[in-house]
Design goal:
- InterPro entries: Amidase, Amidase_dom, AS_sf.
- This is Amidase.
- It comes from Herbidospora solisilvae.
- Residues 25-417 form the Amidase domain.
- The protein is of the alpha/beta class.
- It has two domains: 8-218, Alpha-Beta Complex (Amidase signature (AS) enzymes); 230-276 and 320-426, Amidase signature (AS) domain (Amidase signature (AS) enzymes).
- It has helices at 8-16, 22-40, 48-58, 101-108, 145-152, 169-175, 207-218, 246-261, 275-293, 303-317, 323-338, 364-374, 379-384, 413-426; strands spanning 43-46, 70-74, 112-117, 131-132, 135-139, 158-163, 178-181, 199-204, 230-233, 265-268, 343-347, 388-395, 401-407.
- It has an eleven-stranded mixed sheet with strand order 1-3-2-6-8-7-12-13-11-9-10, sandwiched between helices. Strands 4-5 form a two-stranded antiparallel ribbon.
- The longest helix has 19 residues, at 22-40.
């Protein structure tokens, strides 16, 4: 029996009980990566030698919550001794001197880092070249697409990614896995924190694994607890002119109906995002490109990134970088728009994942249009700094998984996890893509 494909909870329980060794678990997952990643392209680098050494050094530790659990880390988060490229050739080749605090907590809990996962350049794009395990012609999404694909293909049970304008939830929905963006301040952010919009978070296949991972990452127990909530469903909260796949909208409604059966009050949320929020989110995105590209050799950047950075610098010069609207939305706008509800349900993405091919060679305008029409439903909650997550909920007629998004006000991670756990029990999902 291979341990690849088992949950983090199952693996940790077995290693703690002496029913499996960390070396055996790691060897099985390295074999899965060797067999599967050529078709997916999730990993930039696999740390086979150091992972086996770490597994051997772990020994039998019955006190470790993630004992022997293989993890993958997105290639913009520091892992000691490794270079984090942030998806660009322009990155410094200097290896990190120490682990990022979140990586350090994972290791201290017994997790074994198997490798670094791919992301598009500077994590700017919702469409990456990592292939979707459900359909290899399509993108796994971005920017944490490598991490999401590695989990969906059963190469690791747990991956670390981050989310600046949806970069966990978008690939999570595309690949049919759970991804949670914590609220601002719960975890130390990635090095490029995108004006406090970007948050580190876990990708897993079960709610129990997400609870365990988030508890370890924060160092604080996260208690899923939700009773008698007022929940709103917004199948398409986008401004007029933007569309959401009809099957994605129906999945959001079905999730609401399932929670109504659990005794919660479920209502329609007829409001749409203000157009000014959309434009400000786009301006903030371009400003992030300018800031992250500032100290890099522009000649080494992709043409689309150079163009984005130039536009971002212009927006910064004329004080139209989205910061004013972001501050208003975070201070009171999101709360006013949310109204008297506890949790909001929406689709996570607006349309099926597009092709994985060739986006790095296409111009800025084509990339921007593709990203905005594919994934316009997530950025508002980075602008607000609120917790949000995606869970698989049903299957599209294309055969791909559907993701629904759950959003709560600050400190609402426990509410989201509780509702996600109920939906998982009511409508269990395939934990991995069928071919894996």
């Amino acid at each position: 029996m291979s341990w690849a494909g088992r949950t983090a909870v199952e693996i940790a329980d077995a290693v703690r009980a002496g029913e499996a060794t960390a070396e055996q678990v790691v060897a099985d997952h390295l074999a899965a990566i060797s067999a599967r990643d050529d078709a997916v392209g999730a990993f930039r680098t696999v740390l086979a030698e150091s992972a086996m050494a770490d597994a051997k050094a772990l020994g039998h530790r019955p006190d470790l919550p993630l004992a022997g659990v293989p993890v993958a880390v997105k290639d913009n988060v520091a892992v000691a001794g490794q270079t984090a490229t942030n998806g660009t050739r322009a990155a410094s080749p200097e290896p990190a001197q120490e682990d990022h605090p979140v990586v350090a907590r994972l290791r201290a809990a017994g997790a074994i880092v198997l490798g670094l996962t791919k992301c598009p350049e500077l994590c700017l794009y919702a469409i990456g070249d990592t292939r979707n395990p459900w359909d290899a012609k399509r993108t796994a999404g971005g920017s944490s697409g490598g991490s999401a694909a590695a989990v969906a293909a059963g190469m690791v049970p747990l991956a670390l990614g981050n989310d600046g304008l949806g970069s966990l939830r978008i690939p999570g929905a595309a690949c049919g896995v759970i991804a949670l963006k914590p609220g601002h301040g719960l975890l130390e952010p990635p090095p490029h924190d995108w004006f406090a919009m970007s948050e580190n978070g876990p990708l897993t296949t079960t709610v129990n694994d997400t609870v365990l991972a988030l508890t370890v990452m924060t160092g604080t127990p996260i208690l899923p607890e939700a009773e008698d909530l007022r929940i709103a469903v917004a199948p398409n909260p986008l401004p007029p002119g933007f569309s959401v796949d009809a099957e994605f909208q129906e999945a959001a409604r079905a999730a609401g109906a399932t929670l109504r059966e659990a005794g919660h009050t479920v209502v329609d949320h007829g409001r749409r995002f203000p157009m000014s929020l959309g434009w400000s989110t786009i301006a903030a995105w371009y400003s992030c490109a300018a800031t992250d590209a500032h100290d890099l050799d522009e000649r080494s950047l992709e043409p689309r990134t150079r163009s984005m950075a130039r536009v971002g610098r212009f927006l910064q010069r004329i004080h139209r970088d989205g910061s004013r609207r972001r501050d208003q939305w975070r201070a009171y706008g999101a709360d006013q728009w949310f109204g008297d509800i506890d949790v909001l349900i929406t689709p996570t993405i607006a349309r099926l994942p597009p092709s994985a091919d060739g986006w790095e060679s296409r111009g800025m305008a084509r990339n921007a249009y593709a990203d905005i029409t594919f994934a316009p439903l997530t950025g508002a909650w980075n602008m607000a700094g609120w917790p949000a997550m995606t869970i698989p909920f049903g299957r599209h007629s294309s055969g791909l998984p559907i993701g629904v998004q759950l959003i709560a006000p600050p400190d609402g991670e426990g509410l989201l996890l509780s509702l996600a756990g109920y939906l998982e029990r009511a409508r269990p999902w395939a934990r991995h893509a069928p071919t894996f």
